[in-house]
Every structure is written in C-alpha cells, then in structure tokens.
Amino acid sequence: MNATGTKEPIIVIGAGIAGMTAAFRLQQDGHPVRVLEAEDRAGGRMRTVERRGYHMDLAAILLIENYTQMRALVRDLGIEGTTQRTNNVVGIRRGGRIHRMRANRPTDLKRSGLLPWSSLPAMLRLQADLGKYGSRLRWDSDMGEAAALDTETAAAYAERRLDAEFRDWVVDPMSAMFFNSPPDLSVVNFLFSMPAVNAEWFNFHDRVDTLTTALAARLPVETRAEVTQVEEVPDGVRVHWRREGEPEHTEEAAAAVVALPGPVAARLCPGLAPATLDYLANVPYVPDIHVYFGVDRRPDETATCVLFPQREHPDLGVVTFNHNFAPGRAPQGHALLTSYYRYPWAMRHWEADDEKVVELTHEVHRQAWPELARHIEAHQDMAYVQRWKNAVILRKPGDYARLRDFNRGLDPHCRIQLAGDYLAFSATNSSLVTGERAAERVRDIVTTGAVSAGRG
C-alpha cells in the first residue's frame, strides 16, 4: 500500500489464462492492474476462432471436472451457467476398429476388447501404481513430489510394469496426447494423464474461450502491446513496450507478472538470475500443427476423440470430434473434426503452406481411417490449419527433477514473478494455478516491501 492508502499498481505481461488469472486475483485484492498483450486479442492458447459458423477451440479443448481451480474461477466470474458436463467417450483404433470407453469408467478398458484378457494383471498393476502415486500427481502442484517418479521413460515403465500389449495399445496412444511417443516421454506424463482422463469432463456451451473472454471483459487489457523489456528497479519494475505507429512506451509499477513462454520470458527479463535465464531459455517446447475440418453431415462416431497407436499410423495422433464435446462447435446437423499429429510430423511440414497441409492430412486420413477420409472429402465445408510454435513441453526423464530445482531456486522477493505452463504440468488448469501463485507472491512482496536478494 502506498502513501495515499491505495494499493500498488501491478503490470501483467501476457493475456493468456495464466496472466489474466493473476491479474483478476490481484484486481480482486484491490490492486490496480494493467495487462499487456502482443496479439490483437486476449486468450492465448485458450482462444476460439469462428469460420462459417464453426467454433474452433485453438488449443485447450478437453476440460476435466477435477480442474478445481478452474471451476472456482468460473464461479467467481459468475459464468457457471455457461458450462455443462460433456461426453467423455474416448476411442482407440486397433485393427481398423474403434474400441470405445468412458474416461471415468476404468472397467470399460477391460470390456472394450482393446486388450486381451492376458493383460488383466498389467491393468491391476497400473491401478495399484496410480493408487500409490496419485497424491503426487496434482494439478495444483509444482511437480516437486512427482520428481521422485521421474526416473524412466513411459516406454521403459511399460516394459517393466505392464506388458507389450499395454505398451502398444494404451501407453503409446496416450502419449499422442502430448504429440509424442513413449520412448521420448517421462513416465510422469503417462501416469499423470491416466487419472486426468479417468474423470468426468466439462466444457463451455459454445466455445472454450468463454472463460478468457469473461476475464478480458473485467480487466484493462492493452492488445497489440509488444513488450520489449521488463526490469526490476528500486521498489518496483519498469516495463518497455511498443505498438506499431506509436512511440515506445515506458511504464512503472510495484511489480510485474510475466506470463509468457519460457524462452520469451528469458529474452524480456535479462536481469533475472543466470540460472533462471538458462532454464527459461531452454524450456523444451515442441511445435504442433493441427487441422480442422467442418463437414455438412455428421459422421456416426460417438467418441469425443479417437487415439491412434503408431502401429495404426506413425504420424497421426488424435482425431477429435469437437461437436461431441459440447454444443455450439458446429452449425446444426454439421460436424467439426480436428486431426493432431505427433510433433516430428509438425517439424517436417512446418514450412508447408496451409493448402499443402490440408492435402497431406487428407492423405493421412486415407491411410489411417479410410471410412472417415471418404466422409470428410464428400462433405467438407471448411478447412482451417492452426500452428503453435510452443505447443506443449516435451518432458523427458529427469526434467521434472530439474523443474523442482528450478521452482525452489526462484527468488520469492523478486518484483518480477513468473507464470506459465513451464512451472508445472503442461496443461490449462496448471497454467491457471501458476497465475494464482504469482498473484499471491506479488501481494506478499508489495505488502511487505521486500527487496529482491537474488534477482530471479
């Protein structure tokens, strides 16, 4: 609180879910906040684009009832009426057939026919491990407790604790949700994804950016405001930003929350501790290209998503049936489908234009799911390509131990606080939690007038 009795102003850089959650919580506490966003609209990866009546959620599409913090934020914003429980049927393709199961019914895996009965002992071992380690795998965690589990790849865990059938037809397709494959993925990601998927799901009626739109409506967000530097100064921070056609802006505040991808945060905050900068600059994001198809006739598929083991196709990871998640994704009688790839495919085709990517995706569909390919090509109404340079974080064995050490090494008194998916498990709710944590730290700093000891 300053000499006039009002609370100190705070600047937040980045209007994604992490940044705007931090800003909203600070605003609730009475701090004047200002949010700077380089893009022309807020939302980050929790954003929706509309084309020809189709609502395409660009990154976050699957929301889980045990996202406790997100549910609380929805209540605090007064938008509970915009959400609903949704279909949580997941399919896995094997031998040209879709094996369907409800995500919150583990027994469906036994009944689906995906695995032989000889894999039942592996299922029981996995359930035992999830029961044993579940308390370490939490959305509100900085993953410090999970670091002790981070000793092998998902593939090595499957070989040691499960069996070959489970490895090829469950562990492998689950890894596709991270655009990855078991030999490159920490076992923590696989273990984390199992209780996450084994839950009820919810979503917003029409579009997932209902949440970020509600936040933006309550916050002073400056769009097209490209921040060029954030520096800690005595008793505060100084932020430099620019907008095309305007002179450079310089603003000061009591503190700042930087809610941007790790490498971007490192570039903008050169005064942070060297160890902090090194970690941020090397956060191992992988790229993603995914392709939406609007069709004027709904296919018969009832699942929300169908996962593809590499034995079914080496590149295609997931096909989502967005109209099955919640209403409003497609016009009446129409359907919206999205194809996601494992990240090496995205790297190979990153420079291809959108028309070429759509053409390649049609070819992949013909190889992996011929019936669906024929349906899309006969009824295609719209196609849209989305690219994310920093899609998800590729966590290999040992990375969660490094994350634990990074979090423990951050200076709690620094006037520049960080938020983002690289501080926890790479998921929407975890990003939101890092924003709330950053807001708490900022409140403590400006209340006590603490001075940074280690700069980051």
From TrEMBL:
SUPFAM superfamilies the UniProt entry points to: FAD-linked reductases, C-terminal domain (SSF54373), FAD/NAD(P)-binding domain (SSF51905)
Signal peptide start and end residues: none
Gene Ontology MF, one: oxidoreductase activity
Domain Amine oxidase residues, every copy: 17-442
Protein known as: FAD-dependent oxidoreductase
Organism annotation: Streptomyces xinghaiensis
